[in-house]
Amino acid sequence: MLFREDALDILKVSGCSDKVIAHCITVAELALEIAVKQINKGKDVDLEIVEIGALLHDLGRARSHGIDHAIMGVEIAKENNIDPSVLEVIKRHIGAGITREEAKIMGLPDDDYIPVTLEQKIVAHADNLVMGTERISLDRRIRKMQEKQIDKKSIERVKALAEEIGLC
Fold it and tell me: Are 111 and 79 in contact (CB under 8 A)?
């Protein structure tokens, strides 16, 4: 597994902006806070996967700022021999995930992008609660999604993920 500094170097070398890197750091800090709360509740959480996954979740923004940035991030991570468990965090971090059917409509590769492991869910949830480097409420995230006319199923998944992980 990578060290934090190695993950930050990959972001820089891959071409992520300082703004994206700052966002990734903020998401990683929140994700680790959420992970520790989960551990304190008796859950088994791999803190390394959470931290490195959160730091690299937007790696694909070096190549795209579209919904496909998750796919681009996985490609860049593979080029850097990143652990498969971190690849899955990157792939599944968008919102509360994207179903196979939604992926087809969006033009993404035929796959399921719903977070499955607790680590994947924690990173996705933390990302939902960070805009830029500002931590935001779940209500604010939902309002932003509604303003962008994101479908109700996706919004309900974000709410359900928040309930499962804890609103933090």
Answer: no
**Residue found under tokens 């990683």:** 28
Cβ 19 vs Cβ 12: under 8 Å: no
Helix or strand (DSSP H, E) at 31:
helix 18-40
DSSP strand E in the chain: where?
Answer: 130-131, 134-135
Q: What is the pTM of this model?
A: 0.95
Residue type, 10: I
Query: CA distances (Å), 28 to each of 50, 58, 85, 101, 146, in order?
Result: 7, 11, 16, 29, 25
Per-residue DSSP letter, 82: -
Q: What is d(CA 15, CA 22) in angstroms, rounded to the nearest whole number?
A: 13
Q: Could you report the per-residue pLDDT of 137-148, keeping only the tens digit for each? A: 999 999 999 999
